[in-house]
Automatic annotation (TrEMBL):
This is 8-oxo-dGTP diphosphatase. Belongs to the Nudix hydrolase family. It catalyses: 8-oxo-GTP + H2O = 8-oxo-GMP + diphosphate + H(+); 8-oxo-dGTP + H2O = 8-oxo-dGMP + diphosphate + H(+). Residues 20-147 form the Nudix hydrolase domain. InterPro entries: Mutator_MutT (IPR003561), MutT-like (IPR047127), MutY_C (IPR029119), Nudix_hydrolase (IPR020476), NUDIX_hydrolase-like_dom_sf (IPR015797), NUDIX_hydrolase_CS (IPR020084), NUDIX_hydrolase_dom (IPR000086). Keywords: DNA damage, DNA repair, DNA replication, Hydrolase, Magnesium, Metal-binding, Mutator protein. The gene is mutT. It comes from Oleiagrimonas citrea. It is an enzyme of class 3 (hydrolase). GO terms for biological process: DNA repair; DNA replication. Pfam families: NUDIX_4. Its cofactor is Mg(2+). 8-oxo-dGTP binds at residues 42, 53-56. GO terms for molecular function: 8-oxo-7,8-dihydrodeoxyguanosine triphosphate pyrophosphatase activity; 8-oxo-7,8-dihydroguanosine triphosphate pyrophosphatase activity; 8-oxo-dGDP phosphatase activity; 8-oxo-GDP phosphatase activity; metal ion binding.
Length: 150
């Protein structure tokens, strides 16, 4: 009987041709209902320092995307989030790092998101935000959001 993580890897690799080293990253799209989405800035000393991204992070072994994202949003923003549909999912490579990057819509949350880890936060208009300020993988995602502002 293969372990849970082996089975998950096998399952993901059917779709994304991942390797065991692939990093599953989950990120949340919080929308304020007026076309603005929440971004967090990557802190100094980290890869892609200073660029903006959707709040989230790496899934831990055995976590589903929704579990990992709910945990990350609580750690980073202090909110309890209700998660909706998967908006995007695609492979992305940064140097020798291979990501499986998944974004989910965040449908409801309690309270006001706040910076729990010292990262800068801002609400931006998906249609007008300068995409060069985003991590490269997030630029096509923002383009998609700009087309589907609700
Ligand atoms: N949380 C998050 N990470 C993203 C997004 N887009 C994107 O390319 N990433 C990349 O996904 C990777 C994992 O994110 P993370 O926040 O858990 O990683 P980290 O900074 O602790 O790790 P690292 O800088 O050592 O790689 C980073 O390389 C980050 O740049 C996004 O929208 N949200
Ligand atoms: Mg993170």
């Amino acid at each position: 009987m293969p372990s849970r993580s082996t089975r998950l890897n096998t399952c993901v690799s059917d779709v994304l041709e991942t390797t065991p080293e692939t990093i599953h990253v989950v990120a949340g799209v919080l929308n304020d209902g007026q076309g603005r989405v929440l971004l967090a800035q990557r802190p100094p000393g980290k890869s892609l320092e200073g660029l903006w991204e959707f709040p989230g992070g790496k899934a831990e072994p055995g976590e589903s995307a929704a579990q990992a994202l709910a945990r990350e949003l609580h750690e980073e923003l202090g909110i309890h989030a209700e998660l909706g549909e998967v908006l995007t999912r695609f492979p992305w490579r940064y140097g020798d790092k291979q990501l499986d990057l998944e974004t989910l819509r965040v449908t409801h949350w309690d309270g006001e998101p706040r910076s729990c880890e010292g990262q800068a936060l801002q609400w931006v208009d998906a249609r007008t935000f300068d995409r060069e300020q985003l991590t490269p993988a997030d630029r096509p995602i923002m383009a998609l959001l700009a087309e589907s502002v609700d």
